[in-house]
Amino acid sequence: MKGKVIVITSGKGGVGKTTTTANLGTALTMLGRKAVMVDTDIGLRNLDVVMGLENRIVFDIVDVVTGGIKLKQALIKDKRFEGLYLLPAAQTKEKSAVSPHQMKNICNDLKKEFDFVLVDCPAGIEQGFKNAIAGADEAVIIAIPEVSSVRDADRIVGLLEAAGLRKNQLIINRIRPRMVKRGDMMDIEDMIDILSVELLGVVPEDETVIVSTNKGEPAVIDTMSRAGEAYRRIARRLNGEEVPVITLGNEDKIFNRVRRMFKLASR
Amino acid sequence: MITEDVVIRESKGGIIICLDSQGSFLSLKEQILDKLDSLDELIGVQAFLDVGQRKLSRKESNEINNLLMERGLHLKKLVSRGKLVDFKKEAAAEKSKEPTSPSVSETNDSVAEDTILIKRTLRSGQKVFHPGNIVVLGDVNPGAEVVAGGNVLVMGTVRGLAHAGALGSEKAIVAAFRLNPTQLRIGKHITRPPEGEGKEGKEPEMASIKSGKVVIENFKV
Ligand SMILES: Nc1ncnc2c1ncn2[C@@H]1O[C@H](COP(=O)(O)OP(=O)(O)OP(=O)(O)O)[C@@H](O)[C@H]1O
Ligand SMILES: [Mg+2]
To answer: Which residue's CA lies nearest to atom 25 of ligand 1?
Structure first.
């Protein structure tokens, strides 16, 4: 089996990288695929908490690169979902404990076993970012509809391109439908225009995300959650299905836009 | 043991590329490319070129400059036989040495032969400097900078900073398919778009200096 490594990154902090990793990992296994989530936010690990797996951690990624622990030993199996695993970050070690080269090896090993390796990237563009992208085949960039977030996302796309990553897709998170309708929110169209990358999906601002995060259960499990629904659709898209993007308000416009971008990309 | 013709060192301000005086220029170029590929992220980094005893022709140094530029590096200074040469000043000096034929310099063609083509969008944090003209086949995004000694032509939208005539020329122009910069500079003049007027223009536009002021007009052929 040869899977792909997708890094989930944003530049700006707190825009939903960890939330996205947890939800997409879970949703992909709900589609019957095998997925592993890798937390590279050393010193600020979160993914285990969001997944409700904190109390199961014995070894972490730093133990794997330095302590002679086998990768398999450090992987935590999520008992709720068939085929879902987590490789936790270390909480008490230095960021520099892992090198890009070591990270690449880990990713290469993991993609032999899994269909999807989702790498949760820390905020910023420093060492942690370089580690996270080292083994990636593709990137998913998370941005929220704010000027500063789009600016950071653009910087990230530039760095990804410089690092040779060609397949970069955008998720716009925390869209508020009412503000979009009023025209008070940064236009999705404008965001795509500036970033000129393929739109993978749009996730609404949704309180169920916060509730589910605190419970350690990703929103995709909750059939009533609108953000969960958006993530389930994104997962199907990652899995190769053609699913129109829900855009909350101006559907046609964005759908056309996405189609156009797909055409451009496949030319 | 083969001695290396190209050595790249990192310094606090950027990277230093040292060239050996032996070896063909062609192989030097290849080695520089190889070496650069082995380094990660270079966009926006300043490069210092130490040519040692080697004498580079203007054409050769431009070739190296272009090659660095394509990787997003910004050639800052050239060191020759231990002497530091400011790349910008050098280019300016060379320009002023060129015989000025009045009819040509009127239309600002004096730097036309020295044009580089950037075949991508410049994104936030990326900067391109070139003593001649710069043509960008893409956008210049907010937070990106395109700085030319000559003219700037962008076949896309300018949303970041564009500076033409950065070595002092007041005759330089900035032309773009869509001109919506955060800041626009020509020579020593700095302008910002008027406050509140957020909408992008719908026509190709051109900025130039007319009677001491930066003016932006629709681009007419
Ligand atoms: N669509 C959404 N609706 C409501 N809240 C959200 C949404 N997406 C994320 N959040 C909340 O935003 C906060 C930050 O999210 P998250 O931790 O996923 O961001 P991050 O990018 O991983 O942050 P960091 O840069 O610190 O790693 C969390 O409290 C999360 O619950
Ligand atoms: Mg996080």
So the answer is: A13
Instruction: Say if residues A188 and A145 touch (Cβ distance below 8 Å).
Output: yes
Query: What burial class does residue A35 get, using C-beta atoms within 10 Å of its C-beta: 0-12 exposed, 13-18 middle, 19+ buried?
Result: buried
- Count of C-beta atoms within a 10 Å radius of residue B73: 23
Interface touch A154/B41, C-beta < 8 Å: no
Residue B122 shares a structural domain with residue B211: yes
Contact A33/A111 with Cβ under 8 angstroms?
no
The region of weakest confidence among A27-31, A107-111, B46-50, B111-115 is: B111-115
Tell whether the model's pLDDT for residue A140 goes beyond 90: yes
Q: Does A165 touch chain B (CB under 8 A)?
A: no
Say if A163 is an interface residue toward chain B (CB within 8 Å). yes
State the smallest CA–CA distance between residue B42 and chain A in angstroms: 8
State the CATH number of the domain containing residue B40.
3.30.750.50
Q: Give residue B204's domain range.
A: 108-218
| A154 vs B: CB within 8 A | yes
Q: Note whether B41 and B63 are same-domain residues.
A: yes
Q: Do B205 and B119 belong to one domain?
A: yes
Which residues, other chains included, contact B88 with Cβ-Cβ below 8 Å and sequence gap of 6+?
Answer: B129, B131, B149, B166, B167
Note the pTM of the prediction, 2 decimals: 0.75
Q: Which residues surround the ion ligand 2 when the cut-off is CB under 5 Å?
A: A 17-18, 46
What percent of chain A is predicted at pLDDT more than 70?
A: 91
C-alpha radius of gyration, chain A, whole number: 17
CATH classification code of A4-265: 3.40.50.300
- The continuous run of DSSP H or E covering B49 comes out as strand B46-52
The per-residue pLDDT for A250 is 45
pLDDT tens digit sequence for B128-171? 999 999 999 999 999 999 999 999 999 999 999 999 999 999 99
Based on the fold, state whether residues B174 and B88 are members of the same structural domain.
no
Q: Per the structure, how many domains does chain B have? A: 2
Asked whether the beta carbons of residue B123 and residue A158 sit closer than 8 angstroms, the reply is yes
Tens digit of each residue's pLDDT (9 = 90 or more) over B37-91: 766 555 556 778 888 778 778 788 878 877 777 666 767 777 776 555 555 555 5
Residues 6+ apart with CB under 8 A from B87: B65, B75, B76, B77, B78, B131
Q: Which residues of A touch B126 (CB under 8 A)?
A: 158
| CB contact (8 A) between residue B124 and residue A161 | no
